[in-house]
Each structure stands twice: as C-alpha cells, then as structure tokens.
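Suppose you are handed a protein chain with no further information: no name, no annotation, nothing but its sequence. What can you learn? This example shows the usual starting point.
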Amino acid sequence: MVGLRVLAVDDEQPALEDLAYLLRADDRIGEVLTARDGASALRLLDRALAEGRPIEAVFLDIRMRGLDGVVLGRLLAQFARPPRVVFVTAYEEHAVDAFEIKAEDYLLKPVRPERLAEAVRRVWAATREASDPDRKGRAAVEVDTIPVELGGVTRFVSSTDVRYVEAQGDYARLHTSTGSHLVRIPLAVLEDRWANAGFVRVHRSHLVSLKHIDELHLGSGRCTVRIGDTEIPVSRRHTRQLRDLLVRRARPGRGE
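A reasonable first move is to predict its three-dimensional structure. Written in structure tokens, the prediction is:
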C-alpha cells in the first residue's frame, strides 16, 4: 500500500528536523512535509487538497508563535475530510484538549521512537480501516483512547477497556478491570463520543459498556445491571431501551 502523506509542524527547527527524521524512518510513511508555524501548515494543507494529494496526518506541536497547535487542531477538525492529528509537545496539560479534538495520540517530548511508531500505527490503522466499510465501526472502537494522569505521567486508556463510567460533577470516573481513573470530561461528552462504540446511558450518573454487562435484574419496579462485582442502577426512562439493546445483541447474527 502507498505510505502515509504526513505533515510535521514545529516552530523550533531542531525539534522539527528530529521529528521529520523519525517519521521518514518508518516504512508506513510515504512522504513527510514540514512547516514552522500554523499559518504555513494551513497553506500546505490547502495546496495538497488543491493538488488532489491530501495530507492524511499532522504531527503537531502545541505551543508555537502565532497560531498555536490547539487552535490549529480545532480548525483541522472542521475540514470536510480532516487529517488525523497527533500532538507532539513538551506539556502535559493539553491532553484534555487533545481528546476533545479527537486527536489520534498525544506524545511528550523528547519523543521516544517506540512511542512515535505506536502513534504512526494508530494513524495507519485509522486511515486504512476508515476506507473499509466492513471494518469502519470496529476501527472506531479499537483506536479511541482517552488521556489519564498517573503520577505525573500521561497514559491513554482505550475505550474498549472501560467497563462503565460514573459522573462526578464536571468530571467522569472511568472504571476498568484494573482500577479507575478520574478525568476532567463531563459524562455527556463521553456519551456522545462513545455512542457508536457500544456505550449507553443507563442513569443520569452512569454510562455502561454493553459488552461488559454480566446480568440485568428486573423486579419490584427496579432495574439494575451487574458489571463484575458492581451493581449499577438503571433509571426507569432508560430501562426499556437497555433491555431492547441487550435482547438484540443476544440474537444470532446480531451485535458484535
């Protein structure tokens, strides 16, 4: 297959050269363009579209003079066919912005070759699988991740590992088989983002992964679901929808 056509953007020349060098060393990359600022990056992207050779991914620094990376990322998200975005930055505090923009990955400088290779793998999988209608839904689940802070280190938790989500004010707590993570993202945002990934709202304070539900209990006018050792309440207005979804998934030839 033809390699990815990507754009590296950084206002520091040594950092830009290092990033471009590492990208060109990856067999999945076909061509690497470079830009020193956001305005130049937009011009390159427009020219590539006009030539009929669109850029498939942008590896983007955040703190740059003029148009910074977060603003540029939001502009790219409005394209009719937006390129995949990977942030490459020395700052951890923009991880939530990256999630809201639906960035493919978030790398911290100095960039380790193995982490960059993983980001390229995600971009490669997302772009190639998105063009295959039979795999598009699965790809969205496989590559969707959310940044969490663990001891000053930003890690990414896959939506496929999340069993259920619990609202805590403007925050949400992600529950996995190995623990939980508090993230600064409202439950409603996750509900919208993961609607096609098998997550459903069952209560004003809970979002659950359908594939992780072990039992559904109905009785005495009360409905709950069990996920592992946890029992989660289901509000009346969500009960029928949840029951119907579970029944459809259980039928042969339906669901996952």
